[in-house]
Amino acid sequence: MSLLMIWFVFIPGEKIILRLCPTEEETVELLSKVLNGNKLASEALAKVVHQDVTFTDPTLDSIEISIPQDILGIWVDPIDSTYQYIKGSADIKSNQGIFPSGLQCVTILIGVYDLQTGVPLMGVINQPFVSQDLNTLRWKGQCYWGLSYMDTNIHSLQRLDSTRKNSEARSQMTENTSSEAERSHPFSAVISTSEKDTIKAALSRVCGERIFRAAGAGYKSLCVVQGLVDIYIFSEDTTFKWDSCAAHAILRAMGGGMVDLRECLQRNSEMGLDLPQLVYHVENEGAAGVDRWANKGGLIAYRSRKQLETFLSLLIQNLAPVDTCT
């Protein structure tokens, strides 16, 4: 399958529709128009986009499933964490496996949802800059995927999950020095550097020092998918459907999800335990431009519903005194 691209490029006095042409030579000619005649770069790009891409995974290859194409909508973010990509920092150190910034925070997000219900069905997260070979300076990437459709829930981390569960079972047999801290603050969370002070204060009471900061909505969601943290929480309305759909689909396949933070905080637990999952087919009423597709209530990404309910209970308890003072 060849890669497809359709971009609208504006240059002085001309608008160019940049697309994948029938032949590599035609794509080179088109690319040269927006690359100031740089034929070497144009040829390199054209070669990549015209190549056939083969993707196989034993987990996915082992099942047969048919999904009607006419019910599917798609959200794509070709470069999430664009600033980190432009900056190109390759020497950032991780904090317990989580990178606060750098190329590792860059992701490519593809999310597929049901056009009628808005429920995410399939998701792919490509992390192109996972590790760098110091000799060749070439990067190695990693791709994650998940499928949640009717009774089928599969994802690319299933084999890793079984290994992790065995490791956790063994670790429970031997107490370590960090167990006391983990019992007093059982949750870990990843947040944005721009998170509100009220949320950060409440999180510090719930998570203690197990709060991590990272760039990129896609990368922070991926940290939850990977099991590096329990929760990704963001209270602002500056993430969009293309930021969350892919990870949401993967998390659904894992038994988790992604919910509207504001609605969760306003939810009356006595009225039931239905959680306000994000949906991807409805525009925000009264909004204009890209804000039509913003996650207006903020979000929480999680792997375990039981963990989320406990986390929300603790968060609400610790938000109350702060909100009273403001």
Automatic annotation (TrEMBL):
Its EC number is 3.1.3.57. Residues 169-179 have a biased composition (Polar residues). Keywords: Lithium, Magnesium, Metal-binding, Signal. InterPro entries: CysQ/Inositol_MonoPase (IPR050725), Inositol_monoP_metal-BS (IPR020583), Inositol_monophosphatase-like (IPR000760), Inositol_monophosphatase_CS (IPR020550). It catalyses: 1D-myo-inositol 1,3,4-trisphosphate + H2O = 1D-myo-inositol 3,4-bisphosphate + phosphate; 1D-myo-inositol 1,4-bisphosphate + H2O = 1D-myo-inositol 4-phosphate + phosphate. Residues 1-19 form the signal peptide. The keyword Lyase does not apply. Residues 161-186 are annotated as: Disordered. SUPFAM superfamilies: Carbohydrate phosphatase (SSF56655). It is an enzyme of class 3 (hydrolase). Belongs to the inositol monophosphatase superfamily. This is inositol-1,4-bisphosphate 1-phosphatase.
